[in-house]
Amino acid sequence: MRINLPTWLTLFRVALLPVMVLVFYLPFRGHNIVAAIVFALAGITDWLDGYLARRLNMTSKFGAFLDPVADKLMVAVTLFLLVASHRGDWSGIVMAVTAAIIVGREISISALREWMAEIGMRSTVRVAFLGKLKTVMQMVALIVLILQHEKDAEALRLYHIGEGLLVLAGVLTIWSGLYYLRAAWPALQDDAPATPSSTEQDRNA
After folding, report:
1. Of 7, 123, 171, 203, most Cβ neighbours within 10 A?
2. Which of the 8 DSSP states describes residue 123?
């Protein structure tokens, strides 16, 4: 299997995750800034690999599989880091609940897409603008929260902004999840077995 440039960028994004985790915990001055930069770089590759795949016509089945996996890993790992760095105060509770909503939605919609693909209706739950907006909101919120996760007094206002953006991303997460569920609901209500054509299976692979 030949790995093209967009897929290499996706693999690079996955490789950045352990680097970000390590930097997040290393006790040196400015480690939060470096961790935020690493996360932002991963976010840039998320946009860049999709752009290059479309622009240069370098799509592949492996890349189509790996890209959403890398995105979900990046968000989930970062949320776990932020939740683990909080005590049991009100802010920590809000963070934990929001993280549970986001991760739970990602697992549920991924399962829904996989099932819809099995019955040949993958396009019914393709990524919508609302889902893209949710992703952008998550990325911005997480960058701010990584940058200010130690909640220094002089930067507390910026931290609360990031916290508010993450809660808003959680609301968009629920909204977009309901959007996909509504699109798939007719198929979910149909008890008759569906056998997709080979052409449709290949297109959605």
Report:
1. 7
2. G
Tens of pLDDT, residues 142-172: 999 898 766 554 455 677 888 889 999 899 8
Using one digit for the tens of pLDDT, what is the confidence trace for 28-42? 888 888 999 999 999
- The per-residue pLDDT of the chain, averaged, comes to 81
Give me the residue label for tokens 């893209």.
Answer: 132
Closest CA to 178 of 116, 141, 131, 117: 131
The reply to whether the predicted model has a pTM over 0.85 is no
- Per the CB < 8 A criterion, the answer to whether 39 and 146 are in contact is yes
14-48: string of b/e by CB count within 10 Å (b at 16+)?
eebbeebbebbeeeeeeebebbbbbbeebbebbeb
CB 53 within 8 A of CB 64: no
Closest CA to 7 of 64, 77, 74, 47: 64
Which residue's structure tokens are 């935020």? 36
Alpha carbons 168 and 163: distance in angstroms, whole number: 9
